[in-house]
Design brief:
The chain is an alpha/beta fold. 36% of the residues lie in helices and 24% in strands. It has a single domain, classed as Rossmann fold, CATH 3.40.50. α3 runs parallel beside α6. The protein binds adenosine-5'-diphosphate and magnesium ion. The site of adenosine-5'-diphosphate has 11 residues, from α1.
């Protein structure tokens, strides 16, 4: 099922946050939504899920108009959403965390759990552990796994590598911390690799379309098919990922 936004506008407290946002995601496609902080990426995902009210424009999933549907109804219609900051339940086990989304929708799991665990093997070893002891990268895998268990047709991922892919300042800080402490749950140097692999596997399978909000250009270049760039609430550039050239990057993505 194709996700299609057309002319979507969203306002908070009378100020316009999204202006005429139009984009499309097809099954088997990974579409990257990029842009600096505060330009409206998360608001776009919230408009799709029904968490932000759309003033004007349409959000369609397949042949259904989602306007007027509540977030739970949209989830049942086929939207899976992993919000920014991966809110997992720290005191529930990994297994409970995985099941809870599907259970809340009244879905019965058979076989899907195995499939998700094969996508994220590290979770399999940790099924009985508390979610809170996982590293940031493992928690992100858990949050994506939970969304996949609701059997979505479109998966919305809000900055899955945030806080996992360290910037240079974080790297220095972590090195100092590693030298002074031991035994903390920690992501290895290939910390985003599992997420990267999982997205590629889903893409290859071709059933689910993925809308990926992402600030890391390299990650987008590796997993994306197409891009949209936002600036101050509008889509200012879009196209196949191969067309994401230096000029666009310098103009809209660098600080
Ligand atoms: N609940 C809210 N109430 C008022 N303003 C908000 C709210 N959420 C976000 N904003 C504003 O909307 C703009 C877009 O935010 P957001 O969509 O979170 O950006 P991004 O995800 O691209 O960093 C920002 O200027 C932000 O301050
Ligand atoms: Mg955001």
């Amino acid at each position: 099922m194709k996700l299609e936004l057309s002319g979507v506008q969203v306002s908070y407290d009378g100020s316009r946050i999204l202006r005429e946002v139009s984009l499309a995601v097809s099954p088997g496609e990974v579409v990257c939504l990029m842009g600096r902080n505060g330009v409206g990426k998360t608001t776009t995902l919230r408009a799709i899920t029904g968490l932000a009210r759309v003033d004007q424009g349409t959000v369609r999933l397949g042949d259904r108009d989602l306007n007027g549907l509540r977030p739970e109804e949209r989830a049942r219609a086929g939207l899976g959403y992993v919000p920014q900051g991966r809110d997992i339940f720290p005191n529930l086990t990994v297994g409970e965390n995985l099941r809870i989304g599907a259970v809340a929708q009244g879905l019965r799991l058979n076989g899907e759990l195995e499939r998700v665990l094969s996508l994220f093997p590290v979770l399999k070893q940790m099924l009985g552990r508390k979610g809170g002891v996982l590293s940031g990268g493992q928690q992100q895998q858990l949050a994506i796994g939970r969304a996949l268990l609701t059997n979505p047709r479109i998966l919305l991922l809000d900055e899955p590598t945030e806080g996992i892919q360290p910037n240079i300042i974080d790297q220095i800080g972590e090195t100092i911390q590693r030298l002074s402490t031991h035994g903390l749950a920690e992501d290895g140097p290939e910390r985003v690799q599992e997420i990267n692999d999982a997205i590629r596997t889903l893409r290859r399978e071709g059933r689910i379309g993925i809308l990926l909000v992402e600030q890391y250009l390299d990650f987008c270049l590796e997993v994306g098919d197409a891009f949209y760039i936002m600036d101050r609430g509008s889509i200012v550039a879009s196209g196949p990922i191969a067309g994401l050239g230096d000029e666009i990057v310098r103009k809209h993505l660098t600080v």
